[in-house]
Write a structure and sequence with these properties.
The chain is of the alpha+beta class. The chain contains 15 helices and 13 strands. Strands 2-3-9-6-4 form a five-stranded mixed sheet. The chain has a three-stranded mixed sheet with strand order 1-8-7, with no helix packed on it. Strands 5-13-10 form a three-stranded antiparallel sheet. It starts with a strand and ends in a 6-residue tail after the last strand. Bound molecules: protoporphyrin IX containing FE. Protoporphyrin IX containing FE binds next to helix 11 and helix 15.
Length: 400
């Protein structure tokens, strides 16, 4: 099977999971891209250097509405880790990776536990029902990522608002364009402030590192900081909220995550990550050579998107993949991607989700959806899967 970008290939509909692990699909107004829907094909696409992350390429898949037309307006300095290829990508990633190693992140556990505890202590004060994402998952995720980056005060709320627009459904193009411009402008001010008065935060470290090597470019640091915030806030907030929603339906998982036994809580978190695969379509690439994958010829110039959700529900790897099953071995799932672009913040995200959910269900063992409030649907229109409506919970035992 071959696909030719720009020649109007039809969408290959249906076909079942097992027939081919490469499909051709249209994303909005693009000419079409391949979609890898198998576990092994995901890994092949993600690690093969013949698949480029260059967002400037005219056939780079614009999966999300806010990406459409954006590359044409982009400047070279605006690229971040996710838009670079080796060796440039390796050089920049090496400078930031030491801040996100498993060991370094483990040292942050007491700090994250404090943030979570403070939020939990206030959660139901003066309220019988609360919106779990707004009052808990969101604040925990924002305090952590902003604390690391050195962002404080009213700026946090403004960046959260930009994030909601930039990672949302992208329906209102002019809103996306103005949020993008305002965010970039404030990021520039923020980096300049840190440059003038450095602290002990990640932003100051990055500036110092690039200055030490005499390769400092304010615009580039601005983009890296923006990318870390955008990738690190909404994803983790959504995953904590979605995780809570799933656990509310699964008493044995609540008991497991509240047990405090490290191996057990980690296993629940991994199954939540696999099951929800919230960053489903972010692994997008463009072929810079002709590549054979799973019996398909991907032509030079074809766009390719590798689906984490499809890979994580590949029945040849995960038995009964649509079931949420804390007894399974969920790793090595690919919820954090694979290969050189594998998620920079994976250890941080795991830590936050684990600490937040285990403390939440330990402190409030009777947590349930508040009476007369519907169970929210799952939203699929943004960059990350999340809750389509507020998750309103009470800490009182359910009456039924
Ligand atoms: C549940 C939470 C998260 C999920 C599911 C997730 C998922 C992913 C995935 C699938 C990729 C790979 C994209 C690709 O293949 O091109 C990725 C990349 C990335 N993630 Fe995460 N992520 C999460 C949290 C975080 C956090 C907390 C941070 C904060 C540091 C972060 C920062 C990044 C960055 C900077 C990249 C780009 C890496 C590169 O291109 O080298 N993510 N993430």
């Amino acid at each position: 099977m071959t696909g030719k970008a720009g020649q109007g290939n039809p969408i290959i509909a249906g076909g079942g999971r097992r027939r081919s692990s490469m499909k051709w699909a249209m994303f909005g107004e693009t000419t079409g891209s391949w979609v890898a829907i198998g576990y092994n094909t995901f890994k092949q696409v993600a690690r093969d250097p013949r698949f480029s992350s260059n967002h400037f390429h005219p056939n780079f898949p614009s999966v999300f509405p806010m990406q459409r037309g954006a590359a044409r307006k982009m400047q070279k300095e605006w690229r971040t880790y996710s838009g670079m290829d080796v060796p440039e990508h390796t050089a920049h990633r090496r400078k930031v990776a030491p801040e996100f190693t498993a060991r370094r992140i483990a040292e942050l556990r007491p700090w994250v536990q404090n943030i979570v505890q403070e939020r939990l202590d206030r959660l139901f004060k003066g309220h019988e029902n609360v919106d779990l994402k707004l009052s808990f998952a969101g604040p925990v995720a924002s305090e952590v990522i902003c604390g690391l980056l050195g962002v404080s005060g009213r700026r946090i709320e403004t960046w959260i608002q930009h994030s909601a627009i930039l990672l949302g459904d992208g329906a209102d193009r002019s809103r996306v364009a103005s949020a993008s411009a305002e965010f970039r402008e404030d990021l520039g001010r923020f980096v300049a402030e840190k440059d003038a008065a450095p602290g002990t935060d990640l932003t100051s470290h990055l500036i110092a590192e690039y200055r030490r090597e005499s390769i400092y470019c304010q615009e580039q640091i601005r983009e890296f900081v923006g990318a870390i915030f955008l990738a690190g806030f909404e994803s983790t907030a959504s995953m904590i909220a979605l995780g809570a929603l799933t656990l509310l339906d699964t008493p044995e998982a609540v008991r497991a995550i509240a047990s405090g036994v490290p191996g057990v809580t980690k296993r629940v978190v991994d199954e939540l990550l696999r099951f929800h695969s919230i960053a489903d379509l972010v692994t997008a690439r463009v072929a810079v050579d002709t590549v054979e994958i799973a019996g398909c010829t991907i032509l030079k110039g074809d766009g390719v998107v590798a689906s984490t959700a499809a890979a994580n529900r590949d029945p040849s790897v995960f038995t009964d993949p649509d079931a949420f099953d804390i007894g399974r071995v969920s790793r090595p799932h690919v919820a954090f991607g694979y290969g050189p672009h594998r998620c920079l913040g994976e250890h941080l995200a795991r830590l936050e989700i684990e600490v937040a959910l285990s403390a939440l269900f330990t402190q409030f063992p009777h947590l349930s959806i508040a009476d007369s409030h519907p169970k929210p649907e799952i939203a699929t229109s943004g960059v990350f899967r999340g809750l389509a409506a507020p998750l309103i919970v009470t800490s009182k035992p359910s009456e039924c």
